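Worked problem 6 (solution included).
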Amino acid sequence: MIAYNQDPHLSSVIKAKYFPFNSFWTAPSHGAKSVFWSSIMQVKNELTSNCFYQILQGNSNIWSQPWCPIWNNMHAYLTLSTQGEQIPNIVSDLWLPNSKRWDEEKITHFFGQQAAQSILQVPVSQHEGEDILCWKPVASGICTAKEAYRHLAGQHFQPIPQQGERSLPIPILTLLNQIWKDGLMQPRVKTFAWRLLRQAIATGERAGRYSSHIDENCKRCGIRENDHHLFFTCVFARAVWFSADPPLRSDVLPEDDTGIHSPIIFLFQTGVHKVHIHKVFTTLWFIWKARNDHRFNSKVWTVQQVHHLTNATVQAFNPFAGTQHNNQCIQEQENSTALIKHSHGVQDHVEAQVIVQRVQIGGAANAHQDDISRSVQHIQEGEQGPQQLQRQLNISGIFITAQIFQAHGPLMAEAQAVSLAAKVVKSLGLNQVTYISDNQTLVTALHKGDIITTPGHWNLRPILAEFFNNNREILFEARKIRRELNKMAHSLTRKAWNQPDRTSCSFMCNNLFHDQQCPVLEALQSSSWGDFHLCRITCV
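Solution. The predicted structure is:
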């Protein structure tokens, strides 16, 4: 949120307090820090290494924002041969005037040949708009708290200990998973349940370990306040449970060293309906709220107040809670199979990771051939395209194989194929064309036409920007076809993959109407193909 500047007021306050003379990316880690800012600083390096700016307008700061691989060492590369020279400050200062092309001479002059090689590899999108901050691990490119947690948890996975205070019995772990996936439980109650079962609630006994100013005893009855006492054996908690529906004598519940796991397992050992789980943990939540009000605000809750708030909260998130509660009892439920489901879930997750890695490796290996094989079919199978093609050039189709070395994965390769198809369409002077693809993500992005908010994947933005630029004066549509109908594209892909690197393109014209000079060859020879290398063109 700070880097995206989603809340300008909050971002301004944090900047003024912690990094008044720097950007977030170069904020110092020393100095006085709150718990909030200290936690951010602990993961800042991980955030920095996985974030970068996609260049559109070139408004990113050269010295303090992650716009290229060497951005954090730009000062070390700076060379000043003449005093008084105006040093570039933002990315657009490194472009040729009135263009979005790198000024190679200027970059080499200021930063040297080694830095210039790295900078010149940074793609520049031809789309208008400010530079976009992207989060690499997710397709959307947006770094949310949820996505950041998933990434960090995957990078620094720590298994739950089997012994000690932080260990979790299997039934408790199963219950945690069930609670976390429950869409009808209030989010704050979910969070509280997670903290309670992970033994992270700041009871008097637990908080008293860190400060001598905290009273370790219960304020109501003067007994040492641990988890079991606070939620089950305190006079207030016992009154709440005994007056509940159904009533419960909490003072006879089993107790162990953890204080909370044994009574929870005992309550749910026969399997219960979700409504009962909601009600139990919501009751525990309001017992905790009542305890905090009594300890810190000197406010005394009544037992009925806890019950009313519990029932209102449960029914607010689950309107059918009352009916389900009357129709099903705890004793009538069969033993839950969540444990088996959880074990299968772990296995599925591992298999999914393996599949993703295979796709990424295979896509990178086949990137330079997986592009253009589809581009011809994009033109060939369009509704209006072939008619225009036949009328103007007297041809029935063009088959192209080509290579490119900047497609890192199947999705990016498919997008490069469509981009080349757009170049071919522009070179041939077509007015209407239908692009086809067997990739739903790409077709959806082409339909929406907004590369800023809905690019399909953040690394498609430069490719889609070039595609829309080439189709600016062309009436086009995009369609999704089944993969088995795209055999021609895959056949050309294999040919491009098996074809050795060539310095020239071979051309073959099998069209009987082209006696001497092929108009397709003339049109394509006069076009610029950028990073694409055309291997073979066949006109029929």
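Discussion: The first helix runs from residue 8 to 18.
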